[in-house]
C-alpha cells in the first residue's frame, strides 16, 4: 500500500511501523491491507498467518475504560512533593505510547490482539501472564476471541516459541517478539499482570515497568541497527534513525520533572 492509504493506518501499522518491523524481525515482504489494517503474510510450515502490528503499552485516551484517565485520577492521590514527578512520567508514557519502542508484531489471524484487549484492558503485562499460563499448561483465556479454525492456527503459531522446558517458553517469546532479554522483568510482568491497577502505588510501578521494558527494547533495536540496517533503504534508514533518537531522548528524561 502506498501514498494516501497510509493516512488511514493506526500508528502500529503506519509506514514508520513497517520500517521498524522490517529491521526488528528481518522480514521484508509485500504489505497487504484488510479492513483498514495492513499486514504481511508469513509462512509457518504449512500455515500462512497474517502478521500485523500492535501497541505494547496502551497509554492512549480512548480504549475501553479510558486507561489514561484512570491513571491520572489515581496519581491525584500521591503526596504533593511527588506529584510533579509522577505526572511528568505519565506524560512521558503518553509520548512514548506512539513511538518505535512501543509497537511489535502480533498475528492478525486468530484475533490475538482482541484477546489482549479483552483479557486485561489492553495491558501488556496481563497479556504476558495469559501467554505464560498457556505455555505452562494452565487454563488460558487467549482463545476466547478466536474461531475454531483460527484457534488451531494461533496455537501452531504460539507453539513455534516452545522450548525444551515449558516454563522458559515465555522468555523465548518475549525475546523474539519484544527484544526483552531480562528474565527478571518478564517474571515481574507475569506476577503483576494478574493484579488490578487500583492504587497510586500500582500505577507508579506499572509506569516504571513500562520504562524498563522500553529501555530494553531500545537496546535490542540498536543491536538490530548494527547488524541488520542494510535491509532498509537509505530513506528508511534516515527515518528509523531519527525515530529511535527521538524516543531515546524522551526516555532519557524519565527522572526529570
Write the topology of this structure.
Blueprint: H1 15-25, E1 32-34, E2 37-44, E3 47-55, H2 67-75, H3 80-97, E4 103-107, H4 112-120, H5 124-135, H6 148-159, H7 169-178, H8 183-193, H9 200-228, H10 234-251
Antiparallel strand pairs: 1-2, 2-3, 3-4
Helix pairs in contact: 2-3, 3-9, 4-5, 5-8
Unreliable runs: none
* Cross-sheet strand order for the largest sheet: 1-2-3-4
Largest β-sheet summary: 4 strands, antiparallel
Task: Return Rg in Å.
Answer: 18 Å
Strand content: 5-15%
| Topology order in helix (H) and strand (E) letters | HEEEHHEHHHHHHH
Shape: globular
- Total number of beta strands: 4
C-alpha termini separation: 42 Å
Fraction of residues in helices? Answer: 40-55%
Q: Structural class, from secondary structure content?
A: alpha+beta
Mean pLDDT: 90
In DSSP terms (H or I, runs of 4 or more residues), the helix count works out at: 10
Short description, anyone?
The protein contains 10 helices and 4 strands. By secondary structure, it is of the alpha+beta class.
Question: How does this structure look, described?
Answer:
It is a single chain. The protein has 257 residues and is an alpha+beta fold. Helices cover 54% and strands 10% of the residues. It has a 4-stranded antiparallel sheet. Helix 2 packs antiparallel against helix 3. The longest helix has 29 residues. It is globular. The termini are far apart.
Amino acid at each position: 500500500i502506498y501514498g494516501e492509504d497510509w493516512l488511514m493506518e493506526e500508528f502500529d501499522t503506519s509506514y514508520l511501523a513497517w520500517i521498524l518491523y522490517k529491521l526488528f524481525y528481518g522480514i521484508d515482504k509485500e504489505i497487504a491491507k484488510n479492513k483498514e489494517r495492513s499486514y504481511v503474510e508469513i509462512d509457518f510450515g504449512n500455515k500462512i498467518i497474517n502478521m500485523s502490528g500492535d501497541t505494547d503499552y496502551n497509554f492512549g485516551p480512548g480504549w475501553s475504560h479510558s486507561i489514561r484517565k484512570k491513571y491520572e485520577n489515581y496519581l491525584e492521590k500521591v503526596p504533593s512533593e511527588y506529584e510533579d514527578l509522577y505526572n511528568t512520567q505519565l506524560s512521558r508514557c503518553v509520548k512514548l505510547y506512539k513511538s518505535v519502542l512501543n509497537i511489535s508484531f502480533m498475528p492478525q489471524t486468530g484475533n490475538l490482539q482482541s484477546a489482549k484487549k479483552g483479557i486485561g484492558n489492553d495491558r501488556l503485562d496481563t497479556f504476558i501472564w495469559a501467554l505464560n499460563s498457556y505455555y505452562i499448561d494452565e487454563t488460558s483465556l487467549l482463545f476466547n476471541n478466536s474461531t475454531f479454525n483460527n484457534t488451531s492456527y494461533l496455537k501452531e503459531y504460539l507453539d513455534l516459541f516452545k522450548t525444551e522446558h515449558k516454563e522458559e517458553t515465555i522468555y523465548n517469546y518475549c525475546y523474539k517478539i519484544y527484544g526483552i532479554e531480562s528474565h527478571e522483568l518478564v517474571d515481574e510482568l507475569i506476577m503483576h499482570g494478574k493484579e488490578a491497577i487500583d492504587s497510586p502505588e500500582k500505577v507508579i510501578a506499572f509506569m516504571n515497568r513500562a520504562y524498563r521494558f522500553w529501555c530494553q527494547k531500545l537496546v535490542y533495536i540498536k543491536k538490530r541497527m548494527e547488524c541488520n540496517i542494510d535491509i532498509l533503504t537509505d530513506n528508511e534508514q534516515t527515518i528509523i534513525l531519527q525515530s529511535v533518537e527521538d524516543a531515546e531522548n524522551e526516555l532519557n528524561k524519565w527522572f526529570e520533572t
